[in-house]
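Annex B. Sample input.
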Amino acid sequence: MTPTRDSINRVQDPIQPEVKQEKNDNTHQDPQGILNQSKTDQDSQGILTKPAPIQISSQEYKSLPVAEIIQYKGIDDYIEPTISTYPTIVKTPIHYYCIDGYNLVEKAILEKLKFIVCHIIYITTDSDVELAIRKTAIRMTSEKGKPYYAELVRNCKKLEGFFLETTENPVMHSHGGKRKGVDYALDNRENNIRCLLVERLGKSLSTINKYINYGEDLDEPILDTLVQSKEGKKFFEAVASNKRQFIKNLKCDGKDEAGITEEISVKMADWLEEFHEKGKIKPLSFERSLIPEKKKCPIDPPKPFKHRGENEDNQKEETRESIKQEILIILEGACAFIKEDNGNNEEFTAIIKGEIGEIAIRLCKYDGFDKDTTTVQAVREVA
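Annex B, continued. Sample output.
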């Protein structure tokens, strides 16, 4: 019989209670389905060699000395406290790590208790990545509480980062489960990372991809802001198109990865404020600034476009070839947007109309290149 928390935690120096221990027993499986973990050795990243099983030896509810419990901080604690009565502890060969319910441990510390009853999961690895996976999964695959959508985005981004920074083979953290349409590859590390997250977090591949894509190029401060404001799925969906196009424009400007992360993170704060004020986010303008010289941008041209000739100081001589080049760049941007459109009819219509207007202006300039520019100016004013 598992004792109640009050019966044990209210004494300073308790006699160890009688506890039930499961030895690979299916009647009290770990909520994450992790009793059959397997590990594989590896010769290089993403390549499997001979399997070497490392199973959970047991899990149980047991009174632990409070002083021996370490808060695992590789993944931030969830905002909402666990609804479980007991903190969840992962016992590695060396330490007891709390991956959920540390607020209960803190309460015991404040009450100057020496012991606290915990749900303990024993594993035979010290891998920091494994602890991060378990802390992320604890709220996604159990009934210990529900995470906010922003927390899922942040945690999946961190998990992917852990794998990219380590030499550990992602497949060594697999439990042998297989979801439809998801297969590990021998030499594709990025694919294996996402397949592992599908398996361990209990989500579809499309859902995992969304989490990772939504967190792409965001720095920790803006992710923390999104988590603290408890942002849900609607915000990430509303901002997705603008974020994607803004990143493309920055890449077209020649920004490196650090520069893109810095600028998109600042922009996300602006969009968040707009979303809270208006309940929606205005689509980015696809007017462009200066056209890159002597090279054609392979993706959407950057930033608002100032029509050539409007500023006398910056006016450059135009030719039919330069006008055709501008038209080609506009068409490329429009085609890329059409292919990636997410179904927002209002945004789609506004952007395509704007692009068509830009092309019409340049066609008039092309046709009237050697004629009076009055007609061209009139068309520009109408557009």
